[in-house]
Amino acid sequence: MKNAFQRWLDGDIDLMEGISDAIPEHDHAREDIKERDRKIAREIDSRRETAILIARERKGLKRTYDVIAVICCVLVILVFMYIIAQLPLYGVENVRATTVAQRYIEHGLEETGAINIVSGMILDYRAFDTLGESHVLFTALICVMILLRVDSKNQRQGFEDYYATMSETYFASEKDTILKTIGIFLVPCIFIYGIYVLLNGQNSPGGGFSGGAIMGAAMIIFTSAFGFDRVDRFFTLKLQTYVTFVALSFYSFAKGYVFFTGANGLENHIPKGTPGAILSGGLILPLDVAVGLVVACTMFGFYSLFRRGQIGGTPGRLIS
Amino acid sequence: MMEWIRFWITAVLLVCGLVSFAAGVIGNCRFNYVMNRMHAGGVGDTQGLFLIVLSIAVSAGSIMDAAKLFLLVVFMWNTSPVSSHFLSQIEYYTNPKLFDHMGRL
């Protein structure tokens, strides 16, 4: 049995315990008021600084901006007019301007392996252009996401209940029986048709952009019939990002390989296949699939962002 | 003889379909209330499309082509009423003066 002094030495009891509890509480109300006043003063200062900056900019820089804009416009107009003056006349036979088109028509089938000459052009001869177009779609999606995405950072403070109620009542209200019944029959047909158009891009009219657009439209119909909850189970922001990234990087690397070998006169090992079969046309089919995935993701991403301000997310709630 | 009959059936059906579409277009231009215009537009979407597809199927002459063409009819006859349904639903929910357009009940 130890006495109190030994127990204090061992650290079992704390003599200051009762005393430190008895210290009066911090005066929170007063501190809050002081903090609020400081915040208001800071806010006023920053607004005054901004106003001064804006006024200075209006005074001095606006004229500079105007002058620069006028100069840029005049330069662009001059460049365009010069180029138009250099163009060949319309209707006059011009060997230099038509050799490329003639070559596409005469040698397109044997050089690209695609029956559809348009596919052979946009995904083989001018694949770089199509790569740029896919990246334009990707960039547009990023811009829309920057502008319209709603998350905890940019929604108004103190309105969490409002957002939750709105998402529950508005976004979960797609319970229309007629649309559901039609959607059950229609969506699989549209999806299969989109995949058919996508995979037959080298043999028949169609290809990446049109097939991807049909698939995106099928997803939009499905969403408007059955609600966002069901789509959110598989189509999340992560999936969308991965699919777009993988498709675009696959496109870049595959086409980069072909351009590298072609420019250096090397043999490329991609078989052309027999024209008319599904697996033909060399790289055209995989590139079609890549472009179609990007287009479908972009279309559905636009729809989702414009409708509720996010892609994927927790079902039934706006806030992710 | 057979070709002659087929040509005339095709021509008559095609003209009937075009008349339906013309009725739809004239109605869309002349009516000024959404329900009436929807009604006029539906004539072209259902009857006109059906007649024109029928005439093309007769002139094509093979069963396979006719079946593919009638898929178009099935598609349009399924989707056109759904869009009309939503238009009328939105009109019903948002127009406070709905009953002014209904005439005598």
Estimated share of beta-strand residues of chain A: under 5%
Q: Profile the largest sheet of chain B.
A: none
Global mean pLDDT of chain B: 88
* Helix and strand pattern of chain A: HHHHHHHHHHHH
Q: Tell me the overall shape of chain B.
A: elongated
Q: Find the count of extended strands of chain B (DSSP E, 2+ residues).
A: 0
- Mean residue pLDDT of chain A: 82
Separation, N- and C-terminal Cα atoms of chain B: 55 Å
Query: What Rg of chain A is obtained from the alpha carbons, in whole angstroms?
Result: 32 Å
Could you characterize what this model shows?
The complex is a heterodimer of chains A (320) and B (105). Chain A has helices at residues 4-10, 17-21, 28-86, 95-112, 117-125, 127-148, 160-171, 177-199, 208-226, 228-232, 237-263, 284-308. Chain A is an all-alpha fold and 320 residues long. The A-B interface holds A 176, 178-179, 182, 185-186 and B 75, 78-79, 81-82, 85-86.
